[in-house]
Amino acid sequence: MLIDFSAVNNGEIKLLEFSKQFSLADLKAATNASIDTMLNIVKDLNDEQITFLPHDPEANDPYAVAGEEHIGWSTAHIVVHATASSEEWAGYSSILARGLPYPAEPRLRYETNWHTVKTQAQVIQRLEESRRIRLAYLDAWPDDPYLDVFRGLSERFIEKQGNMNAVAGFLYGLKHEVGHHDQLREAARQARSAAVTQEAPRVEPVSTGN
Description:
It is a single chain. The protein is mainly α. It has helices spanning 6-9, 15-19, 24-42, 47-50, 75-97, 120-139, 155-161, 166-178, 181-199; strands spanning 102-103, 151-152. It has one domain: dinb family like domain (Four Helix Bundle (Hemerythrin (Met), subunit A), Up-down Bundle), CATH 1.20.120. The protein is built from nine helices and two strands, in the order αααααβαβααα. A two-stranded parallel sheet has the order 1-2. It starts with 5 loop residues before the first helix and ends in an 11-residue tail after the last helix.
């Protein structure tokens, strides 16, 4: 099941309160649904399309290396970024569920260098690897998880996002990933469109005999 985070995104409810309706089984099902959605988006892309840089007038990544702040993200780039965030927060969730508070730092984040992901096979491998990692973090939860233990985050973060326990923390990473689904669809659409344009046969002018 894909979770609809619109109420959280619209500020109608904090993620901690929203999270109370979901069981461990729901989190696993939502993880599989998100991974399967992304696999379905990239399943028919070839290697060239995987690395295609789409036009994105809103591209603005202040954390990017110099010269890449305003480039469109390829499907490979989106996949490695989204999965890294989901894995990071899944890691926190497994710690919090065992009753261990976790501070804001150090972050448990590793993102594959998108420049190294050049084939559809690599994208699929990254998605399946992320599925395995995140489900493993959920399997690390005890049978009776601690849900009154929170990550130590800044007052500014908590004011905006709310406190993060094991369930809310896991959903925070997943919400971020689901938020990239439409971006992934658009990058794939542009990649397919560019390929069709490049493959279009050249029309020779008809000679008039003059």
